[in-house]
Write a structure and sequence with these properties.
Number of domains: 3
Distance between the termini: 62 Å
Length: 301
């Protein structure tokens, strides 16, 4: 059958238009070439497919049966080509992204908003998960790319640093005696701490920083989100360990204050990660291009 595919294409158009001439015009070939293809297909199948009439050609019963199957297949191919063109033109498609609450809220969301304005036909699906899970999804091919926070293992992935983030400890009026006072990391061992759960890169990083300074903490509360840490801290339930962005509003209006230490907490980063060797869709490539272009523009300001 494979060697007869071109004949079936001609057969489809002749049957569709009921005319050798119109089929030839549609296919941009000569009418004799159309007639020859029909004859070769009839010979290969050993059956008469068309009957000539005064106004063109019409299908035989055998031809009608064959056309009922060929038409569906050919039109499916046409539909597939149309959808493919739409996908390449960013008129439709899907993007699968992995991001934590933090990276989504404080980095990715404005880009997604802009991308949706540019390409409203593209469906964006965000898998919300901490950095370790996002990296696992990436390596398993379940997402096109992710936005994660350092530190993490870079094996098998390509990473692009896109923004600095800063870890801080914040407190409310119950702990006002510590405001404007320089503390040592060891002081944290005596304070009721509120942190993220241990399966996050943010918590792991802070544990490592403190361990390097001989400090081990036993948090009073371990919560799933940084937003909840801030809310617990506002209610004076302890000292919260968060990325500055989450507490920024409350630091500015004075409801919370930042604890100061005699050592610096290392700066961390947001990174866009892609799988080495993973083929990205046209839509995913366009979104990444948008992110890179706008990031480049920020650096030049």
């Amino acid at each position: 059958m494979v060697q007869n595919l071109e004949y079936y294409k001609v057969f489809y158009h002749v049957a569709r238009y009921g005319s050798l001439t119109l089929a030839a015009q549609e296919l941009a070939i000569s009418q004799p070439a159309v007639s020859q293809s029909v004859k070769l297909l009839e010979t290969a199948l050993d059956v008469r497919l068309f009957v000539r009439g005064a106004k063109g050609v019409r299908l035989t019963k055998e031809g009608e049966l064959l056309y009922s199957y060929v038409a569906g297949g050919y039109e499916q191919i046409e539909t597939g080509e149309k959808k493919l063109r739409q996908m390449m033109n960013l008129e439709l498609g899907e993007i699968h992204i992995g991001a934590s609450d933090m990276t989504l809220r404080f980095y990715l969301l404005p880009y997604l908003e802009h991308f949706h304005e540019l390409c409203p036909g593209i469906k964006v699906m965000v898998t919300n998960a901490p950095t370790p899970e996002t990296l696992a999804f990436l390596k398993a091919g379940k997402i096109d790319f992710g936005v994660v926070s350092t530190p993490f293992s870079g094996e098998g992935i390509h990473s692009e640093t896109v923004r600095e983030i800063e870890d801080i400890f914040v407190a409310g009026r119950r702990f006002i005696q510590y405001k404007n006072k320089t503390l040592d990391f060891h002081d944290l061992e005596t304070l009721p701490l509120i942190t993220l759960e241990s399966n996050t890169s943010t918590r792991s990083c802070m544990d490592c920083v403190l361990a390097e300074n001989g400090v081990r903490i036993n948090p009073e509360f371990e919560l799933a989100t940084s937003d909840m840490i801030v809310q617990f801290t506002l209610r004076n339930l302890g000292v919260g360990s968060v990325v500055r962005d989450f507490a920024k509003e409350y630091l500015e209006d004075g409801r919370l204050f930042e604890l100061r230490f005699n050592k610096l907490i290392p700066i961390r980063h947001f990174c866009v990660v892609t799988g080495k060797g993973n083929l990205l869709s046209a839509a995913a490539r366009r979104l990444l291009e948008l992110i890179r272009t706008q990031e480049g523009g920020k650096e030049n300001q």
